[in-house]
Amino acid sequence: MTYVGIAVAILVVVGGVILGLLRGRGRSSVEDEREAPPLPGSPGPSDADLAPDGAIGTIEHPGEVVEEEPEVVAAPAPAPAPTVETPEAPAGRLRRLRARLARSNSALGKGLLALLAGGSLDDAAWEEVEDTLLAADLGVAATTELVAALRTRVAVEGATDEAGVRRMLREELLRLVDPAMDRSLADERVDGRPACILVVGVNGTGKTTTVGKLARVLVAQDKDVVLGAADTFRAAAADQLETWGGRVGVPTIRSERDGADPAAVAFDAVKAAAELEADVVIIDTAGRLQNKVGLMDELGKVKRVIEKQSPVDEVLLVLDATTGQNGMRQAEVFGEVVGITGIVLTKLDGTAKGGIVVAVQRGLGVPVKLVGLGEGPDDLAPFDPEAFVDAILD
């Protein structure tokens, strides 16, 4: 019995050792399978191996998911810089504007040529010529002078064919428009400072738009320009001017307060232009009726305040060509208050009354320097007397 007990004990011990070895080998194979990388071409992780948000993870323990590093999201690209426009050169504008002027004033030229080349120029015919010129807003004095000159030339030269009449009419009209007048703009630095242009006019003539278009004319000529938004009565005026300037890369000096002192804004604009070493600063002013004494006095103040820092080199009066002779009184009053040096005629394409050019120049003794013939941003151009007369007669 003793040997039998010993034998049983030995068998139990040996069996336990063998069982332990078998269990250890089983755990190792399971861990090896868990840690071994997947073979090429083997299927990816199952749905059970995905984290709740869809990220791929490895299950180490029940209920625990180890997520991979999140994907780095690139920062959004910066917004592109605003595009600065390149304005059309003045030479190209003149060709285009001449064609428009010819269309709008064709009735004037055709009517005169038909009357003068009709072959029978009696007193009634000359009266009709005179009426045609008066209807074109040439003015009484200029009309009387032109008709007298034409009657003399027709009598002396005896020209009644259209070519001869056209030549005479062109020469006499050109003499009235006066090509000898200085139509240059003050757009160059003077004595180390920017030139200063003050733009004035009555309500509704398009001053702010004209200032914006004038900036484009000067930028096309490679000038460094600064704009001054001294129209502080219209809430949208400064915004409008800033938009015009921004399109061609021109800074606008303005006040953020509605109703600010326009003279102070103008002063700041001239000062800023000097600091920026600009070629020219253009000051926009509020529209005002010529019969409002208080408003006209304020305009005079704007000019005086500017002159404490810099001379005003140019005062441009913006006139609506469609107002005809009514614009003459406006021009006279503004001339008395701020000393007009040049005229800008807007909306010249909207009237056949091209004679207003002559009337304004003769009445004020100052030249028409710029004309507007459309709503486009580049529909403002320097006035060319010969192109103007030729357009009337085309």
From TrEMBL:
InterPro entries: AAA+_ATPase, P-loop_NTPase, Signal_recog_particl_SRP54_hlx, SR_rcpt_FtsY, SRP/SRP_N, SRP54_GTPase_dom, SRP54_N_sf
PROSITE patterns xrefs: SRP54 (PS00300)
Compartments it resides in: Cell membrane; Cytoplasm
Chain intervals with Low complexity compositional bias: 72-90
Recorded GO CC terms: cytoplasm; plasma membrane
Residue span, SRP54-type proteins GTP-binding domain: 367-380
Coiled-coil zones: none
Enzyme class: hydrolase
GO molecular function: GTP binding; GTPase activity; signal recognition particle binding
E.C. no: 3.6.5.4
Pfam families: SRP54, SRP54_N
This protein's name: Signal recognition particle receptor FtsY
Native source species: Phycicoccus duodecadis
